Amino acid sequence: TQRDHETMQRAALFSGGDAQMAAGDLGELLVPYMPTIRVPKSGDRVYKTECAFSYDSPDSEGGLYVCMNTFLGFGREHIERHYRKTGQCVYLHLKQHVIEKVPGASGGALPKRRNAKLFLDLEMNSDLNSDDFEYEDEAKLVIFPDHYEISLPNIEELPALVTIACDALLSAKSPYRKQEPDSWEEELQASKHAKALVQLDNGVRIPPSGWKCSKCDLRENLWLNLTDGSVLCGKWFFDGSGGNGHAMEHYKETGYPLAVKLGTITPDGADVYSFDEEEPVLDPHIAKHLAHFGIDMLQMQVTENGLRDNDIKPRVSEWEVIQEAGVKLKPMYGPGYTGMKNLGNSCYLNAVMQAIFSIPEFQRAYVGNLPRIFDYSPLDPTQDFNTQMAKLGHGLLSGQYSKPPMKSELIEQVMKEEHKPQHNGISPRMFKAFISKGHPEFSSNRQQDAQEFFLHLINLVERNPVGSENPSDVFRFLVEERTQCCQSRKVRYTERVDYIMQLPVAMEAATNKDELIAYELKRREAEAARRPPPELVRAKIPFSACLQAFSEPNNVEDFWSSALQAKSAGVKTSRFASFPEYLVVQIKKFTFGLDWIPKKLDVSVDMPDFLDISHLRAKGLQPGEEELPDIAPPIVIPDDPKGIYSLDIDESSVMQLAEMGFPLEACRKAVYYTGNLGAEVAFNWIIAHMEEPDFAEPLVIPAFGEVASSGAAAFGAVGLDNQPPEEMVAIIISMGFQRNLAIRALKATNNNLERALEWIFSHPELEEESEPALDVMDMENNANANILAETGSEGPRVKDGSGKYELFGFISHMGTSTMSGHYVCHLKKEGRWVIYNDLRVCASERPPKDLGYIYFYHRIPS
């Protein structure tokens, strides 16, 4: 046919003619390479939509080459590197062509596909009207180094194994399918149970908060079964989140297949899991199913001014002000003006990464070092932090993915040959999948706190050095904390590392109190009379008041004064022992309302373009100040000596560990020696003690005051010669600290485990450069705590200088809490403000500097 003839012509063009093989030789040609061709198994990740080093895909000009051994994808510019490194010769080349339809040929039908198998789950290019264009998928085997090409499908002449491998590769699922129970990256499928789900009329009504598992005491990770309304806990997995699996047990008893996670319900949907299909699913009828139990989805988050989204909203809503709605914004193109696709609530990541890659130190470290990073990347570059950072940085800064649309006559001309679709913006799917791996929050599809993500990223930058300088040094500063005993007036000075200045919102200093009170009265009247609420009045807080609140003393909870050797009142003030090159300021807008629901203070703070915080410089111990003596609080030994060592073991933690396959006695010891602090800490103990000969021996508990058989005292008692108990040392080592540090900390705190950990964190300078011993701790939520332990004996690396700064960017959040809503980023580039709203990058007309959440300042060179 005409079509096949064209294909042959194109194949000849692509291969330059010499690479076409006579039919009979194909099998023989592939013989030497057969050992390197693999058929993908269920655990293999097949990357057939995106290059590991760039954002090239099958519809890029050079198509995509998929390695038939590792199943990694490479664009035309990066394929040679993989071939040189691995010697792998056989690749599947995927190319998607966009062709203008011949009028009348297909009668305006939907685009025909040449290969019955659609190998790309690429989104259709929305710029192209499908009535005028059609997509052609082309697959070929390419053999390096001579670029021999074999068009597919070609069942007659190819060895069966090769045909099976190609088929499996073309039909493979997205590599971003869930790796953990709570993370799914790709588009969810509708559950087969959703349409005809039976719901029992048992009168169950679910309250908006205060839930608890009906079979145990857990209050988080709770799932509402959509058939009978039971509220039960989810599975436990070793990031420490999870539960006792009661929801799953209930399904096994009843067969009721669908459950929704409480706390994830918003007007846009909710996280639904199908026990039967064993994966997260979509429930197209979720609103109806929730209403059955008295949950109104639309009520779960009312818009800022109390109106539903479908009512007319006044221009003051933060959604409009922050996104600069109502003004026609001019799109920006070129290097540094590249948008990022929202992967479903991933705007927090987009906003932070746009800000990070506007900073020259990050540009230099990753994009400047790109050839070196790519050449030395491991065999699987999708799992390498620096490779993925360099890829993202290059994607944003090269301008390759941000080209202005062509003039129409040019388009006409191009269409006649072959349409090169406009590909603007990048999809950070591989980046998100890698950096959120193993993190219970960021690996989910829910909205997250941009500030927590910023710290998580800094933590990863710290742990994956690139060259001699770490770009994250530009954010690091030292905080001097001065604690004073109110009774004796004696003081203690300590230093800690930080990356963010957190400013409290001084609500009491609002300059428009009268209007706020009047608005609140009107709003209540309107609510009572069911009228639409009045136009929103937002609290105006002077920046100076927030700065003042930051510098004032705070009360210290539960302060033990070493001067009085008793509990007493204490206050703490914080000052800058060094000023960072880049100052990140977070406005603490998020608080917890009653019933612990996170809510946001909708306030306007007049953030300055130029900021001087030199007066907050730390001064150290002042003349006339007396230091608090360095004495640790005493250990309280109870009257009933047996009580403290009686066998109190948390059986639920023991069972969770036993289910992972560890010997029961080892699990009991782990839970006992870690003081019943939960399965995660006990898991660390197990990993640290697995090699020991008595690992699975039964637990032996010495009588009080007797020395334990291991030569160390029982848990919590003081050891011989003041050597700390081995069990305690092991717990601290299992958290990733070095042995000598663990011993020093325990000695300094009289072997009190909790205070020993505090001691370590307050003496970061003593931590040798030690890597955490465990990957389990790698994704520690408390990024700051991890980062504290990173410095060498010379003290933390800081770039101290003057305290004068200029604003160059800010991230704003709209919505009622960090768990929902939307983030955008404004950055000052080449002297003008630009708004980055996921894929849309435009010149900003009215940057809403007063409504930001995180602000980025750069030091003014003095």
Automatic annotation (TrEMBL):
Pfam families: UBA, UCH, zf-UBP, zf-UBP_var. Residues 189-297 form the UBP-type domain. Keywords: Autophagy, Cytoplasm, Hydrolase, Isopeptide bond, Metal-binding, Phosphoprotein, Protease, Repeat, Thiol protease, Ubl conjugation, Ubl conjugation pathway, Zinc, Zinc-finger. Signal peptide: none annotated. It catalyses: Thiol-dependent hydrolysis of ester, thioester, amide, peptide and isopeptide bonds formed by the C-terminal Gly of ubiquitin (a 76-residue protein attached to proteins as an intracellular targeting signal). One of its GO terms (biological process) is autophagy. It is an enzyme of class 3 (hydrolase). It comes from the Eukaryota. Residues 648-689, 723-763 form the UBA domain. GO terms for cellular component: cytoplasm. Zn(2+) binds at residues 213, 216, 233, 246. It is found in: Cytoplasm. Residues 338-860 form the USP domain. PROSITE patterns: UBA, USP_1, USP_2, USP_3, ZF_UBP. The active site is at residues 347, 822. Its main location: cytoplasm. One of its GO terms (molecular function) is cysteine-type deubiquitinase activity. Its EC number is 3.4.19.12. Interacts with UFD1. Interacts (via UBA domains) with SIAH2 (when ubiquitinated). Interacts with BAG6; the interaction is direct and may mediate UBL4A deubiquitination. Interacts (via UBA 2 domain) with AMFR; the interaction is direct. Interacts with UBL4A; may be indirect via BAG6. Interacts with NEDD4. Belongs to the peptidase C19 family. This is Ubiquitin carboxyl-terminal hydrolase. It comes from Strix occidentalis caurina.
